[in-house]
Each structure stands twice: as structure tokens, then as C-alpha cells.
Amino acid sequence: MQDMNLTSLFIELMARLGLNYEFLATGYEAQIWRDGFLTTLYLVAVTIPVSLIVGLIFAACLTSNRPWLSAPVRGFVELTRNTPTLVQLMFSFLVLNTVVSNMVGGAQNNPLSPFFWVVAVVGLHVAALHAEAIRGGIEAVPSSMIEAARGMGFSPFEIMRYVQIPLAFRSSLPAIVNGLISLVKSTTVGNAIAVSEITYASIMVWTQRDNVVELMIVLLAFFSLINFVVARVGSWVERRLAIPGYGL
Amino acid sequence: MTASPETETNTAIVKLEDVHLSFGQTQVLKGIDLTIYKGDAFSIIGPSGSGKSTILRCINALVTPQSGKITVAGTRVDQLTKESERIQLRKRVGIVFQQYNLFPHLTVLDNIVLAPTKILGADKTATVKLARELLEKVRLSEKADAYPGQLSGGQQQRVAIARALAMKPELVLFDEVTSALDPETVGEVLWVIRDLIRDGMTSILVTHEMRFAEEISDTVVFTENGRIVDHGSPQQIFHTADNPRIRQFVGGLSGGGRGAVRDGEGI
Ligand SMILES: Nc1ncnc2c1ncn2[C@@H]1O[C@H](COP(=O)(O)OP(=O)(O)OP(=O)(O)O)[C@@H](O)[C@H]1O
Ligand SMILES: [Mg+2]
């Protein structure tokens, strides 16, 4: 019961500062709140790779000279960049999800959870931002370098894979890190469709306990910490990938 | 797709017959005929815009002419219909450009190893060994782990040549490979090409280095306005040409004495 003692010590200390964390001693609300942290971390951990992979694919499509690849992605990127993520999430969950439910014969058969829809909507939204940044990097690769690769027998895909993406990823890294920071913050839209991430969990607790300030302090610290880590990892990758003698 | 092994010494490896090519309304090649023999050094000279680079691009299937026959190492290039077939051809024909175009994010060694291993599917260990041999050949062994951005233009161009050779091409095309270089580094690149030609590599050079072309070529052609105006031995083109345009061009470029490898004529 070491844990219990630590918790009550914390509650006591905070109470002296005038902050009410008593709910931590309860089983139910404390559990919701802890699960909220885990859910947010889990959302972030799943959505980041989704956004990066889809962003790369989108960027490749955007720079393709096949209109049937570039046009739909261009349309999607414009739509998602210019409309609120919250509206996209509501639309996806209330409309698309219902369509899926009807197709599979009822909501009970629908494998898509609210969690899935947050990952999909936030992931694709940020993927659109990544795609624009990476597209800029792809287009900045000199055409003479592409011709040299073609001259050696690279296919368009191989040029993309071995030349354009590695260079574009490096030049767009700062923008990608910004996109990831906004991704972390955007996971909170999940509370609109009852995904019990940390803001949803916090609202549940503070409506019972009237301890908004106490929870806010932790919430803000929590998101700041995640984004601090994201930024640090970003600059580490940037240093790792820096090209000696090259202006990137 | 590989060519049948050529046995005779005097077999044509590249043949262009009445090749016509236009970009939109602009006629760029207006009936090009050439034959290049295996093991030869073949130079194309001529004024800017006369179609020299375009001829090389046709040979490497980087552009497709509207009409005419092109045969390269046993392949009828003009009859290739799919991009995948053209890619197969390009793997067998090396090309080096004026802008060295090394991949800036890869070390010198990786620049050389990338295409053979990833594009041809060659064995990695054997390719690294080959790459080191090629680096020795272009006298850059100590730069294997450097990045292109850390090398001089002449060094980068020598790596680009090694990179092309690592594909074990049947012939190599050089498009004004010294034109972007500082005068001091032109010589080191020409040395490498000279060695390569001595080793018997079929080489087609577009160049403004008149003295070099005269020294190493078996055949020289002069292009003007999308046509081949004259062809012959270096002696014929550089010294006994009847055509006043050629005399003027050759004279104009090598005007100030022909003792040393000329510099700064490229652009
Ligand atoms: N992709 C293209 N689209 C349109 N026109 C082109 C293209 N490539 C070349 N041309 C034109 O074709 C003509 C011949 O070009 P080419 O590059 O073959 O000349 P060149 O003899 O190599 O000249 P230089 O010595 O300047 O390199 C030029 O007038 C050029 O403007
Ligand atoms: Mg040219």
C-alpha cells in the first residue's frame, strides 16, 4: 500500500496549498482520470505514425503527374485544411460511421470505434499538413538530379523512394514537427464523441468535484510535457539526418 | 534483354538512322545519322542549341524521337513502347551530365552503391568492393565516406563517373562533363575519361574541350541546327575541314594556342 500512502501524502500537501485533489483517493474517479492519460498517450502514439505514413503517401500523390492520383488528394487536402477538425470528426462519426453501420447490418456489427474515428480524422488532417510541407520539398529537388537518376535506370517510384523523399523529409522536418505538435493538441477533439481521453476524463471529474483549476494545472503540464518530448525528438532526428556540407 | 556478345571489334554498338525529333513546334533533330563502333571514343561538337544533348538523350531513351531508327547494343530503342523497357535500356547505358547531380544525402560510397544494389539488385558486398576499386580508379579512395557537399566540383564529377561505371554499362555518354568546373579541376576529370577510353570503354562525348576531343577521339562529328554537318577523323574535322563554319567554330574555340587543355570554354 506504498502507492496509497504516496497518494494521500500528495493530497495532503496540495490541500495545504489550497488545491483539492481528494478525488485521487477514490477508486472510480481516479481510475477514469488515470485511464484518460493513458488514452491520450495511446491516441498520440497511434496517430503520429498514421499521419506520417499517410502524409508521405499524400505528398507522393500530390506530386504525381497522374491526375487520377493528384486530383482527389488535392481536393482532400484543401477540404481538410480549410475546415475545422471538430466538424470533420462530427461528420465522420455521425455520418460516415452510420453509413458503415448500415452497410454491415447494424451498429452492433460495426467494428469502428470512436477511438478509430479520432485517429482517422486527426491523423488524416495532420497528414494533409505534412503532405503540403513534403510536397514543397519534393518539388525543390532539382530536375537535373531527377534526370540523372532517370538516366541510371531509376523508375519514378525509385526516384521518389531513394532521392526525393529523403531530401524532402529533411527539408520539411521543422514543418512536420509543428504538425505533430498540433496533432497532440488536436487529440482533445475526441471528447466531442466520448472518447475518454484526458480532457473528457477531466470534465467528468470536475463536474463532480468542482476542481477545475486543479485539473487544469495538470492538463496543461501534461500536454506541455508531451510536446516538449515531441520537439526534442524532432530536433534529435534533425541533427541525425543533417547532411554535412549541404544547406539543410 | 542483354545484347548478344559482340565478337568482332568493328561492330556498331550505336546506330541512329534519320532521327527526327521536335519539342512542340521546335524541330531539334532534323535527320541524324550516326554509327558508333564498340570500343570507340566518339565526340560530338557544335554550337549551343544544335542538338548535341538531345542526341545523347535519344541514345539513352530519355527522350523519344518522332521518327527514325535507333539501335543501341542490340536494342531497337525506337521500338520500345513501355517505360519499363526504356528503364532496362538506361541501366545498360551510363550517362554523366554537366551538373554532377550526386545524391547529397548519401556518402560518396553510398552514391556509387545505391543504383547497382537497389536498381539492379546486385550483391551488396561485391558492389562495395567494386565501388572501392572504382574510387581508386578515379583517385578518390580517401573520400569514400565524405558527402558530395564536402567535395570540389572536379571531385564530384569523378564520383559521378564512378557511379555510372558501377552499373557496368556497355557504353557511357558524357554531356559536357567539364563545363561547370573550375579551370583547375578540368584536367583531373579529363584524365579519368582518358583512362577509361584507353581501357576500351565505348564513350560518346559532347564536349567543348577541342584539344581533348582531338586527342582521344576515333571519330568526331560536327552538329549544327539539328543536323550532322560533317564527320570524320579528328584530323579531318580539326585541321582539314572544308566547311567554313567548322573552321570558324574550331578556330574560335581554340583560338589562343592549343598547347594546354583549354579551360572556361564550356559555357
Ligand atoms: N525539353 C525540352 N523542351 C523544349 N525544347 C527543348 C528541350 N530540350 C531541348 N530543347 C531545345 O532543343 C534545342 C537543342 O537542345 P540541346 O540541349 O540538344 O542543345 P545542345 O547542342 O546540347 O546545346 P548546349 O551546347 O547549349 O548544351 C535547343 O534549342 C533547346 O532549347
Ligand atoms: Mg547540351
From TrEMBL, chain A:
UniProt subcellular location: Cell inner membrane; Cell membrane
Principal location listed in the UniProt entry: membrane
Domain of life per record: Bacteria
InterPro entries registered for this protein in UniProt: AA_ABC_transptr_permease_3TM, ArtM/GltK/GlnP/TcyL/YhdX-like, MetI-like, MetI-like_sf
Molecular-function GO term, any one: transmembrane transporter activity
Pfam families: BPD_transp_1
Transmembrane intervals: 41-62, 83-103, 115-134, 212-231
The UniProt record lists the keyword Repeat: no
Signal peptide: none
Membrane topology value: Multi-pass membrane protein
Keywords per UniProt: Amino-acid transport, Cell membrane, Membrane, Transmembrane, Transmembrane helix, Transport
Domain ABC transmembrane type-1 residues, every copy: 37-231
An annotated GO cellular component: ATP-binding cassette (ABC) transporter complex
A biological process from GO: amino acid transport
Tagged with keyword Transmembrane helix: yes
PANTHER family: L-CYSTINE TRANSPORT SYSTEM PERMEASE PROTEIN TCYL (PTHR30614:SF0), MEMBRANE COMPONENT OF AMINO ACID ABC TRANSPORTER (PTHR30614)
Similarity annotation: Belongs to the binding-protein-dependent transport system permease family. HisMQ subfamily.
Protein name: Amino acid ABC transporter permease
Automatic annotation (TrEMBL), chain B:
InterPro entries: AAA+_ATPase, ABC_ATPase_HisP-typ, ABC_transporter-like_ATP-bd, ABC_transporter-like_CS, MetN_ABC_transporter-like, P-loop_NTPase
GO molecular function, one term: ATP hydrolysis activity
Compartments in which it is found: Cell membrane
PROSITE patterns to which the protein is assigned, alphabetical: ABC_TRANSPORTER_1, ABC_TRANSPORTER_2
Stored SUPFAM superfamilies: P-loop containing nucleoside triphosphate hydrolases
GO annotation, cellular component aspect: plasma membrane
Pfam family name, one: ABC_tran
Alphabetized UniProt keyword annotations: Amino-acid transport, ATP-binding, Cell membrane, Membrane, Nucleotide-binding, Transport
Membrane topology: Peripheral membrane protein
Taxonomy, superkingdom: Bacteria
SMART domains: AAA
Domain ABC transporter: 14-250
Recorded family membership: Belongs to the ABC transporter superfamily.
Name assigned to this protein: Amino acid ABC transporter ATP-binding protein
